[in-house]
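Milestone 3.1: sequence recovery, worked example.
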């Protein structure tokens, strides 16, 4: 089982996050970024799954202890809207990447919904990062443009998504491929948050299984 830890942000302040450790102390690491609900059980479970698959996994708590119930979308939107995505990425998320890399392995970044957008920002702005996998989230192009992605990138998106829309995904894929970046883009005939088994109204087991296997294969390739 994982545990909550403290680690240093790049601005010298402390952040907290949930750490699940692989058996190999020198294993590569994956930073896992929360949905707009906060650092809740599903994200901690993702960390545990990464640890079982051979990666150290650290999920920084970007809401500083606050979590939002799944039914309260208004509160989740307010919490997400109050977050400075770029600052959080450059301070807490980059600090988490540095913490994992200090153990000797490479480090990847992944995230869901809001965390997917943060993952793209990190793929552009975190120099220590080695690979990134985003799930149904993209930031505005003026914050992090697809053409500026610095690391091998994999994206997973839903065909029925009114937040990270198919049109946004199409534009992102066109731009990142035109820039000659190493990338894989996958689409699933499901809804936003299809990876989250705690949200039964949108969870798609088959799509989630396929996306997870693709994610692990990608990280094993680029973080080895």
């Amino acid at each position: 089982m994982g545990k909550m830890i403290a680690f240093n942000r790049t601005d010298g302040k402390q952040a907290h996050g949930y750490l699940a450790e692989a058996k190999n102390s020198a294993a590569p690491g994956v930073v896992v970024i929360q949905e707009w609900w906060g650092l809740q059980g599903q994200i901690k479970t993702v960390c545990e799954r990464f640890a079982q698959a051979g990666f150290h996994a650290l999920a920084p708590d970007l809401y500083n202890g606050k979590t939002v119930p799944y039914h309260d979308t208004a509160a989740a939107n307010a919490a997400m809207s109050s977050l400075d995505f770029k600052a959080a990425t450059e301070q807490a998320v980059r600090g988490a990447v540095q913490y994992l890399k200090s153990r000797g392995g490479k480090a990847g970044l992944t995230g869901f919904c809001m965390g997917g957008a943060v993952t793209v920002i990190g793929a552009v702005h975190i120099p220590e990062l080695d690979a990134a996998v985003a799930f149904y989230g993209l930031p505005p192009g003026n914050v992090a443009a697809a053409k500026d992605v610095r690391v091998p990138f994999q994206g997973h998106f839903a065909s029925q998504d009114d937040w990270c829309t198919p049109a946004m995904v199409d534009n992102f894929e066109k731009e990142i491929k035109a820039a000659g970046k190493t990338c894989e883009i996958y689409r699933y005939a499901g809804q936003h948050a299809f990876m989250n088994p705690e949200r039964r109204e949108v969870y798609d087991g088959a799509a989630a299984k396929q996306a997870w296997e693709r994610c692990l294969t990608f990280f094993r390739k680029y973080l080895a």
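The domain at 3-222 is CATH 3.40.50.1820 (Rossmann fold). The CA atoms of residues 129 and 208 lie 25 Å apart.
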